[in-house]
Specification:
The protein has 437 residues and is of the alpha+beta class. Helix content is 35%, strand content 30%.
C-alpha cells in the first residue's frame, strides 16, 4: 500500500506537470496532520516530522519525546532504558527523536490526508502557474478553446486555463471548442480561487505580437512598428519604419505576393490590415495613413490639426465606411484630420476671394466717401465729448478738453482729427447729411 501511495503521487506529478518534490513536500505536511489525528483529540504538543523515503516511497513518522524514568504518556515520553538503546549517551529530561510510524500508516494516511493533499496540490499548481506566467504579461500565447462559461471563453494553455472576458473578445471570432487561437496574456490575478490568467483578442499589442511572429525583420529589429490603430475585428492600421538602409518596411510586412500579411489576416479571421510607411514628415505620414486613398495636399492648420485635400472621386474612400478610415488615420498619427475634396476646396477659395473682393470694394467706397466728406470744427467739452447731430461722442481723453478738433462724417462712421491726425472714430446711425450742406 505504501508503494501504491507513492506511485499515486508520482502519477499526479506527471499528469499535472508539477515537480514531484513539491508534491512530496505537501504530502509530508498533510501526513503530519493525519498523524496528529491518530494521536486523539487531545494530542500532546510534540514536534512531529514526516519524511517519505525517496527510493521506496514509504512514509516515516518521527516524534520528539522526553526521556523519563517513568512513562505516563507514551505519545510524548520514552523510558530512559529504551532511549539508551537508541542513543546510549542520552540523559533524563532530554529530547530524543524517535520513529513512531504506525503499522498501517500508509493506508490510514491515504484516507485521512486525501483532501489535504489535494488542497496542497492545488496550491502548488497555483504557485506553479503564477511562476510560469508571471513574467509573460503582454506576451503572445497559443491556446485551445475549451468551453464557454457565461460571457467568458475558457482557453486551455496547456499547463493552465485562461479566461477570455467578453470585453476582450472580437465579434468576428468563432469561439468553438477545439479552435486554436493566439491570445495576448493581459493580466495575472491572484485571489482566493487561485491564479487567474486573463487573455485578450482585442488588444492592440496582439497585433504587434503577431507581426513579430510573422515578420522576422520586426523580431530582429531591422523593421520597427511605430504605431498601431485598431478597431478589433474590422480594420487595423499599422505604421512601420526601417531601421536599416535598403529595407522596404512595408514590403517586409506584406511579404512576397502578400503571404505574410495574408497569414496575419487569416489569424484575425479576415480583419483588414493596412500597413503604411511611417515618416517624420507629418504631412507625408498623414497622407500615408489615409491609404488606400490618394491625397492631393495636406495643410497644417494647428499644432495637432490638419486639412487633407483629396480628389473628388477619392473622398468616400478617404473617409471610409462610417468614417472608419479617417478615424483610424487620426488615431495612428495622433492628429485631428479634416477631409475635403478638391471641388469643395475650390468653392471655399472662390467664396473667400469673393468675400475679400467685396470687402475691398466696401473699403474703397468708404475711402472715397471719406475723402469727399466735409470737414467741420468742434470744441471738445471738459468731459472729453463732442456733439454731432444732437448726439455726444467720446470721450476723447482729458488732454483734448477745450481744444478744437475736426470731424468728417460718412454714411456710417464719424471720424475725428486733431492736427490732421485721426484720433478716433465712431459708428453713426441715421445721419442727416442735409445739415452739412
Amino acid at each position: 500500500m505504501r508503494t501504491e501511495f507513492f506511485a499515486a503521487i508520482s502519477a499526479i506529478a506527471n499528469e499535472r506537470g508539477i515537480p514531484r518534490e513539491l508534491i512530496i513536500e505537501q504530502v509530508e505536511k498533510a501526513l503530519v496532520v493525519a498523524y496528529k489525528r491518530l494521536l486523539g483529540d487531545k494530542a500532546p504538543p510534540v514536534d512531529i516530522v514526516v519524511r517519505i523515503d525517496p527510493a521506496k516511497g514509504e512514509p516515516h513518522v518521527y516524534t520528539d519525546k522526553i526521556v523519563v524514568d517513568e512513562v505516563y504518556d507514551a505519545r510524548m515520553e520514552i523510558h530512559i532504558d529504551d532511549a539508551r538503546k537508541i542513543q546510549p549517551s542520552i540523559e533524563l529530561n532530554q529530547k530524543l527523536t524517535v520513529e513512531t510510524t504506525p503499522r498501517d500508516f500508509g493506508r490510514i494516511a491515504a484516507q485521512t490526508a486525501k483532501q489535504v493533499i489535494m488542497n496542497g496540490i492545488r496550491e502548488v499548481e497555483r504557485e506553479n502557474v503564477y511562476s510560469e506566467f508571471n513574467d509573460r504579461r503582454n506576451e503572445l500565447v497559443v491556446g485551445v478553446v475549451q468551453r464557454i462559461a457565461g460571457n467568458n471563453v475558457i482557453i486551455d494553455l496547456g499547463k493552465a486555463e485562461a479566461i477570455l472576458p467578453r470585453e476582450f473578445q472580437v465579434s468576428t471570432d468563432n469561439y468553438r471548442p477545439g479552435a486554436r487561437l493566439k491570445v495576448l496574456l493581459k493580466e495575472i490575478r491572484r485571489d482566493e480561487r487561485g491564479t487567474r490568467l486573463i487573455v485578450s483578442r482585442s488588444d492592440v499589442d496582439l497585433i504587434r505580437s503577431i507581426f513579430e511572429m510573422e515578420v522576422p525583420e520586426i523580431l530582429a529589429g531591422t523593421v520597427e512598428i511605430k504605431s498601431i490603430a485598431r478597431e478589433a475585428g474590422i480594420r487595423t492600421k499599422c505604421a512601420v519604419a526601417a531601421r536599416q538602409e535598403g529595407i522596404d518596411p512595408v514590403g517586409a510586412c506584406v511579404g512576397v505576393r502578400g503571404v505574410r500579411i495574408q497569414s496575419i489576416v487569416n489569424e484575425l479571421n479576415g480583419e483588414k490590415i493596412d500597413v503604411v510607411q511611417w515618416t517624420p514628415d507629418i504631412k507625408e505620414f498623414i497622407a500615408n495613413a489615409l491609404s488606400p486613398a490618394q491625397v492631393v495636399e495636406v495643410q497644417i492648420i494647428d499644432v495637432d490639426k490638419a486639412v487633407v485635400i483629396v480628389p473628388d472621386k477619392q473622398l468616400s474612400l478617404a473617409i471610409g465606411k462610417e468614417g472608419q478610415n479617417v478615424r483610424l488615420a487620426a488615431k495612428l498619427t495622433k492628429w485631428k484630420i479634416d477631409i475635403k475634396s478638391s471641388s469643395t476646396l475650390l468653392d471655399e477659395v472662390r467664396e473667400a476671394n469673393e468675400a475679400r473682393h467685396a470687402a475691398d470694394a466696401i473699403r474703397v467706397a468708404q475711402d472715397i466717401e471719406l475723402a469727399n466728406a466735409k470737414a467741420e470744427d468742434r470744441i471738445v467739452d471738459r468731459d472729453g465729448m463732442i456733439s454731432y447731430q444732437n448726439m455726444s461722442y467720446g470721450p476723447l481723453g482729458g488732454e483734448f478738453a477745450g481744444r478744437t478738433v475736426q470731424i468728417r462724417a460718412t454714411s456710417n462712421r464719424l471720424y475725428i482729427y486733431f492736427n490732421d491726425k485721426m484720433i478716433s472714430s465712431f459708428t453713426v446711425s441715421d445721419i442727416d447729411f442735409t445739415v452739412n450742406e
